[in-house]
Amino acid sequence: MYVFTVQVKDVYTKLNKLNQSFVIAIVFSPTPTDCSEFPPGTCTGVYTIQPENGPNMILFCDMNTDGGGEFETLIFCKLLSISIGNDNLYYILRQNSYQVRFDLEEVNSSTAYAVYDTIYVADESTNYQLTINGYSGTVGDSMIDVKNIPTDGMMFSTRDRDNDINPSKMCSITQKSGWCHPRCTHANINGLFMIESDSKAHFQWKSWRKDGITKTRMMDKPSNY
Ligand SMILES: [Ca+2]
After folding, report:
1. From start to end of 63-97, where are the E strands?
2. CA–CA separation, 3 vs 27, rounded Å?
3. Which end of the chain is more exposed for a tag (fewer CB within 10 A), N or C?
4. In what residue span(s) does the Fibrinogen C-terminal domain sit (predicted)?
5. Separation of CA 80 and ligand 1 centre (Å)
6. How many angstroms separate the alpha carbon of residue 168 from the centre of ligand 1?
7. Which of these, 36, 53, 45, lies nearest to 90 by C-alpha position?
8. Peptide bond into 30 cis (omega under 30)
9. 211, 199, 204: which is closest to 185 by C-alpha?
């Protein structure tokens, strides 16, 4: 039997330096190890989980999309951005086999998705090396770069950590996104919200839209859920 309490967490203030944004996190006891452990009928919402031998963390759990049990690793829209971070992803994903789903929306409100059967993020000693493969969906497979090199197997780059395979560029700077860039990626899901710009830095999923993507969601769930 699960019981739950409600906590108010100042998450967005820490992440975005906003002053008056709070999120209510529902805390079950015992603490689930991921969103798939919540009892049937649990509502979509913000919850506290704790992976085995890992830290407590707050997640947005989507209990509706594609059968539920998914946790949102990234939410990007005009007003908010929440990311659980690579360390927390590692603690969750090492527990089981997971799949990942990307939901994309463009300026005219049409939507599309991609599912990859396998996702894993290794620990910091590997520079958070990403495993992602087994595409299906409606947006096409954009987990490749401009030379058709797959994103699968790449390490995470940030503006001060160049782990991509492009010797002449830092793709995290060119595309303004922390990501497992091979060369500069076709799926810039951590890019900027810039509908009108033709910059390489905005949201992109080139096999679907080069411009005009207004929302991206990345959600993971156990493969056997
Ligand atoms: Ca580089």
Report:
1. 70-76, 81-83
2. 8
3. N
4. 84-224
5. 29
6. 6
7. 53
8. yes
9. 204
**CA 51, CA 146: separation in Å to the nearest integer?**
36
- What domains, with CATH codes, occur in the chain? 3-222 (3.90.215.10)
Is the pTM value of this prediction over 0.90? no
> Separation of 159 CA from ligand 1 center, angstroms?
10
Beta-carbon count within 10 A of 40 CB: 6
Amino acid making up residue 22:
F
Ligand 1 centroid to 96 CA: how many Å?
Answer: 32
Rounded to 5°, angle at Cα 150 from 109 and 155: 100
Q: Give, for all 225 residues of the chain, the pLDDT tens digit.
A: 455 555 555 544 444 444 444 556 677 888 999 989 888 888 888 888 899 999 988 888 888 887 777 776 643 332 334 457 899 999 999 999 999 999 999 988 899 999 999 999 999 999 999 999 999 999 999 999 989 999 999 999 999 999 999 999 999 999 999 999 999 999 998 888 776 665 788 888 999 998 888 888 888 999 988
**Amino acid letter at 203?**
F
